[in-house]
């Protein structure tokens, strides 16, 4: 981080504060996750332009949010959050199973916005031997420091692809012979579903489940039996159960 020559950067938290440091980070191809901006005009517009060229997500934020992110340092209306790991392409994830000689086993997170949930899902994906995780660019947690910590470092080992259009990504997976398994209470009991083929498992958001569009894209819908008065589980807990049922079925073949 010294190359940006700014004492207001909080390297320990992977945060870059201030207009010039963020511009230099973009120009140097630093691995940035999200840029938060309050306002427009002048160098802020340049930052937005460079971010678009580099494929970095830009979000509008109020001064209070920027002050929180920067730890009270002077942010000049912009704070960039570095990614804890490098994003890969969906093709890279498909190549993992091709190289191993196994059938694809992919996790798709549909609008998982809590970084703790995303981190926990990535951690379980790593231990379950999944080939990778796919997340959308919008309305999703991303590879920030919270996700890295919650994943217990698994984010360094699990390939994560960040796509601009999740529906189109699913179409591409289907073209490559991958079946899409959605998770919803309307589905078939997960224990009665064959999970041994080429598959991508879709985990819906914490509060609303899968979006309608993504539901329509699924080839199968599976569910967990709910025996008590509570009718849903935390997204990362549910994901873990589905992943390890996949592991169990594949090992028994």
Structure description:
The strands form two sheets. A six-stranded parallel beta sheet has the order 7-6-5-9-8-10, with helices on both faces. A four-stranded mixed beta sheet has the order 1-4-2-3, with helices on both faces. By secondary structure, the protein is an alpha/beta fold. Helix 2 links the parallel strand 2 and strand 3. It starts with 14 loop residues before the first strand and ends with a helix. The chain contains nine helices and ten strands. It is elongated.
Radius of gyration: 19 Å
> What series of H and E elements makes up the topology?
EHEHEHEHEHEHEHEEHEH
Instruction: Characterize the overall form.
Output: elongated
Estimate the helix proportion, in percent: 25-40%
Biggest sheet: strands side by side, in what order? Answer: 7-6-5-9-8-10
Average pLDDT value?
89
Quick structural gist:
The chain has 253 residues and is an alpha/beta fold.
Give the helix/strand layout:
Blueprint lengths: L14 E3 L1 H9 L4 E6 L4 H13 L2 E4 L2 H8 L7 E5 L7 H11 L4 E5 L5 H13 L4 E5 L8 H6 L9 E4 L2 H10 L3 E11 L9 E5 L8 H6 L2 E4 L11 H18 L1
Parallel strand pairs: 2-3, 5-6, 5-9, 6-7, 8-9, 8-10
Antiparallel strand pairs: 1-4, 2-4
Helix pairs in contact: 1-2, 5-9
């Amino acid at each position: 981080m010294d190359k940006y020559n700014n004492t207001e950067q909080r390297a320990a938290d992977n945060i870059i504060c201030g207009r010039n440091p963020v511009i230099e980070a973009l120009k140097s191809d630093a691995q940035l996750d999200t840029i938060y901006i309050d306002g427009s005009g002048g160098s802020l517009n340049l930052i937005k332009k460079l971010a678009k060229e580099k494929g970095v997500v830009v979000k509008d934020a109020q001064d209070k949010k920027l002050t929180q992110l920067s730890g009270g340092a002077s942010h000049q209306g912009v704070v960039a959050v570095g990614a804890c790991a490098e994003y890969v392409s969906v093709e890279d994830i498909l190549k993992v199973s091709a190289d191993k000689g196994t059938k694809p086993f992919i996790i798709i997170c549909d609008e998982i916005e809590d970084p703790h949930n995303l981190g926990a899902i990535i951690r379980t994906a790593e231990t379950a031997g999944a080939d990778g995780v796919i997340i959308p660019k919008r309305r999703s947690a991303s590879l920030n420091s919270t996700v890295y910590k919650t994943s217990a470092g698994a984010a360094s080992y699990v390939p994560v692809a960040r796509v601009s259009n999740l529906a189109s990504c699913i179409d591409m997976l289907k073209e490559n012979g991958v079946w899409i398994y959605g998770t919803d209470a309307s589905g078939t009991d997960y224990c009665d579903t064959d999970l041994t083929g080429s598959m991508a498992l879709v985990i819906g958001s914490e509060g609303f489940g899968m979006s309608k569009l993504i539901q329509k894209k699924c080839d199968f819908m599976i569910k967990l039996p709910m025996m008590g008065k509570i009718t849903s589980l935390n997204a990362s807990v549910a994901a873990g159960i589905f992943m390890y049922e996949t592991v169990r079925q594949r090992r028994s073949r």
